[in-house]
Structures are given as C-alpha cells and as structure tokens.
C-alpha cells in the first residue's frame, strides 16, 4: 500500500537559496556599520620620506643671514662746507691716523676771519688808548695836587702869621679872616680834586675792564674762526681703509655736516644680521649663534640690538666668541644658527614639507606593519633647522610621513606600496 510522503518546508536547496543572499546583505550591512570608510590613496614608498619620532637633545635655534662688516667703522663728516680744492687719498686706499684726505676752500670763512682780526685790532687800540688816557689823567691829578699843595702851604703860612699879628693887633680882623678863608678854600679844593680823581679812576677802570672783556671775546671768536679754517683740511681720525669718499672731484661743493666718507678699522670683523620682527621679544644680548666657514664652526654672540623695524625685520650685531676665520672678508654672507634656548631633552620629528600643508596640526603616521599610514592629530612646539619639538600626538619609535602632502588631496589613509 502506498504511503504519502510529506513535503519538507525548508529543503536544503531552499535554505541555500535564501541563506546566500542574506549572507551578502549582512556582510554589506556590517561593512557599512563597522567597516573603515576612510578615503584611501595608493602611494609609492620610494616617492615619500618617512622619518622616525625620537627622544633626543633639542636645541631651539633659527636660521639668520648675516653680512661681514668691520669691527668698527669711523664716519668722516665735513664740519665746514666749501669747495673741494685738493684730494690726497682715493677711496679704497689704506690711511694712517692724521693723514690728510682732502682740503676744502671757503672764501666766506676767510673773509669772516679777516673781519674778526680787524675787530680784534680795533679792540686792542681802544683798550690801549683808554689805558693811556688813565695814565694821563693820573699825571694831571699829580700835577694839580702839587699846585694845590703849594697853594695850601703858602696860604697856611699867611694864615698862621696873620693869626699872630691879629693877637698883637697889628692887622685887622678882616685881613685875618681873608687869609683864613684862602687857606680853608685850598684845603677843600684839594679834597674835591682827590674825590673827582677817584670817581674818574673808577669809571676808567670799568671802561678798561669792559674793553678787556670785549677783546677777550673777539680773540675767542678769532680762535674759533681759525679752528674752523683748520676744519677745511679733512684728516683721517684713525688708521684703516678709506672704504668710501663722497667728494670725488676737485671743484665739487660740500655742505657743512655732509658725510665725506668712512674708514673701516681692519683689526677685526663682526656680523650684522637681520631677524624677523616675530622674534624681537626673545632676542637679548649675549645670545649665542654659530656658522660654518671653511670646514670649521665658529661661535658668535649678540653684542648690540637695533630695535628699529624696517620691512618686518630688525638688525643685530654679533661678534666672534673665540677664534675668527683668518680669510673672511668684508661683505661676505654667512648663514648663522642663532640659539633661542638652552639644550634640553625632547621628543623630536624631522622637519619636512608636510608642515606647509598641515601647519603642524596633523600628520600621516605609518602603521607598525608598514603597509599603510593614517591621519592623526598632533601638536608641535619649538623648532630649529632640523627638527620640530613634539608636544602631543606622537611617541618615540613611531614613523611619520614628513615629505610634502600636496598630492594627497583629502585622503585620510595612505596605502604604501
């Protein structure tokens, strides 16, 4: 007898028919939910630079460009204006102290000296005449006093005789009084002559003193005028090289106060460097720097800071700390590593083109497998010409793509091949 066979609802074929599509759907959903959606970019390893993050000694310094200048420069200015009459030394030649460089001619100054000399002679003559007049008045006083003394002696004798005669009643009292009046009149006249002479003497002394002071001023003005005449001859104040001379031609007019030239003292050199104004607050004297020259490294120290900012930069002067290159020359350009801090230990990363793209805020960090690199936020601090100081986001031993990111676009993961 036949048996009815029940048909199975989930036959293997049917299960397989539904299971396979469901598996792919679940796989897609998992990929969408839990998968990596970073934008990827394939990169050839040989076209990028990978640098290791290290813990090492860090010295912050900035690169600056300096120019070699003489250790000291003496400027020569024309104290007096005039016409160039003769040039003794050409620019570029060596000079010794007190060597004559050029001579000027100033007609107005010569006329002024002539007027001063004439005024001095006038004052001398006036003083001499006044002194002679004083001597003359003194002699006249002596002569007048002699006459008065004679009259006093004569009238005194008459007065004394008349006094005796009056007692003996030989003469009248009127005659006696007249002789007495004559005698007393001559005495008062002598006193008045002496008083007048004293007043005249005081007035003459004041006049002589004024004339002497005036003569002294005229002589001082003449001395100054002659000194100005000496200033028409320009001499070298120090020995060195006359590196510039603005008065180049005979007959050229030079104004008072105009710069004639300069002398460079060749006993040594220093470096004048321009620094970005961003670092002005951090630049102080005695700050050290170094540069390479002729296969050697030479140390420098800042000795002077010029705070004036021109075109976003300010200048400093640096002098050699120890030795100075023997064959260095004026005007040469040197590249200095100027130290901004003390030597310390820090986590460092080599400098590279990535910084222009990221500003130091992120970088591609290579996976330990070396197969890919992912974008990671980092924080960089100080820097020098070789490395950055790492403040956060990286650990020693990790590797970072430090070459330029310009061709990576918006990729967040680099596949390294």
Sequence-ordered SSE layout with sheet pairings:
Blueprint: H1 12-34, E1 40-43, E2 50-52, E3 54-58, E4 61-77, E5 82-87, E6 94-95, E7 100-105, H2 107-167, H3 173-230, E8 233-235, E9 240-245, E10 253-254, E11 259-276, E12 288-293, E13 296-310, E14 313-320, E15 333-339, E16 344-350, H4 354-358, E17 362-366, E18 372-377, E19 379-383, E20 387-392, E21 399-401, E22 413-416
Parallel strand pairs: 1-22
Antiparallel strand pairs: 2-21, 3-16, 4-11, 4-15, 5-7, 5-10, 6-9, 7-8, 9-11, 11-14, 12-13, 12-15, 13-14, 16-20, 17-18, 17-21, 18-22, 19-20
Helix pairs in contact: 2-3
Strand order of the largest sheet: 1-22-18-17-21-2
Number of helices: 4
**Elements, N to C (H/E):** HEEEEEEEHHEEEEEEEEEHEEEEEE
Strand content: 25-35%
Sheet having the most strands: 6 strands, mixed
Low-confidence stretches are none
Shape: rod-shaped
- How many E-type strands? 22
Using the CA coordinates, give the radius of gyration.
54 Å
- Count of domain modules: 3
Helix content: 25-40%
Report on the structure:
- The protein is of the alpha+beta class and 417 residues long.
- The protein has three domains: 38-58 and 344-416, conserved putative lor/sdh protein from methanococcus maripaludis s2 fold; 62-68 and 259-339, Elongation Factor Tu (Ef-tu), domain 3; 108-230.
- It has helices spanning 12-34, 107-167, 173-230, 354-358; strands at 40-43, 50-52, 54-58, 61-77, 82-87, 94-95, 100-105, 233-235, 240-245, 253-254, 259-276, 288-293, 296-310, 313-320, 333-339, 344-350, 362-366, 372-377, 379-383, 387-392, 399-401, 413-416.
- A six-stranded mixed sheet has the order 1-22-18-17-21-2, with no helix packed on it. The protein has a six-stranded antiparallel β-barrel with strand order 4-11-14-13-12-15. Strands 3-16-20-19 form a four-stranded antiparallel sheet, with no helix packed on it.
- The radius of gyration is 54 Å and the shape is rod-shaped.
